[in-house]
Amino acid sequence: MLLRFALVCCSLASSACLATADNFDRRALADKHAPAGIMGDHLHGKGEWMVEYKYMNMYMEDNRIGENTVSDATSLGTAVPVGPPGPGITIDGVTTNRGATPTQMTMEMHMAHIMYGASDDVTLYTMAMLPSMTMDHTRANGTDFTTHNSGFGDMGFGALLRLYSDENEDWIFNLGCSVPTGDIYRETSTPTGSPTAFPYPMRLGSGTFNARPGLTYKRYSDWYSWGAQFQTDLPIGKNYRGYSVGDEFRFNSWTSVLLTDNISVSLRGEHLWRTEYDGHDPAANGTLISTNVEQFRGGYWYNLGLGAQYLRNGHYFNTEIVPTIGQDLNGIQLETDFAFIASWSKSF
Ligand SMILES: [Cu+2]
């Protein structure tokens, strides 16, 4: 950074230095990408490729009704083992958890992301996902069980379009979508002894084509940058099982501060809204467990992202810890505690 100050001062003092100062690319320092939890925030020059591997793990524990955490006994409607079926819990006229209640879940995701600068104003990208979900439960009869599902998720595609840029700022439109490559119907015999479909949050994809338009604004100052992004994920129609996942809307804003040209730290705030599912998969028995209830998928989450970025010899490392500090959940759902995100990327 000191070198840059020197170049700027130098260029002011002497026009001989101007060429060097003009060659300096502010968008090539440690804060060149938004924090790890953000996608679609930057463009690549014509002919430039970027490959990225991103890992994410999200941890959920305990059930929540609205903004209040509830005990497993409340979730099951009984403190003493009975049944199944147990009494369950009735919220908004829907009785659920008569068979079991989820108690905790981890959602792990491996992502391979490729970007290509088709022109200086259009960057194409594709993203492959490998989700891996593990959920622990307690039955109404007091016993526990764990289910697990993993595999190929929905593929993302899109084009990032430069709407406007000047020396310090970028406006980027994300013309994105996803295709239903993730398997949405798989069975497990763990909970009942006979094959039963995985409940909604344990499924690998949405089963629908989704539109994912988004808009990003980014601004660079000398030693920091900031940005804001509105990003959506909108299923189109219903999948072959007769339902569609909720609409998702995310509003993010962040600031990244350069400690040196190669190291930055970031702070991010994320508002996340999800609507309930539409339709119904006949294999999803909502009376047995809340993860099968379409109305109990929506809500609002507020996440904080504490990140660090490191750039070395063209290798870019981007990490973030994302605690959920506020959530208001429809019906009864597992509450999110935090997520961890780490990525490596390289442009060439
Ligand atoms: Cu990129």
UniProtKB/TrEMBL annotation:
Keywords: Signal. InterPro entries: FApF. Residues 1-21 form the signal peptide. It holds the Pfam family Phenol_MetA_deg. This is MetA-pathway of phenol degradation. It comes from Novipirellula galeiformis.
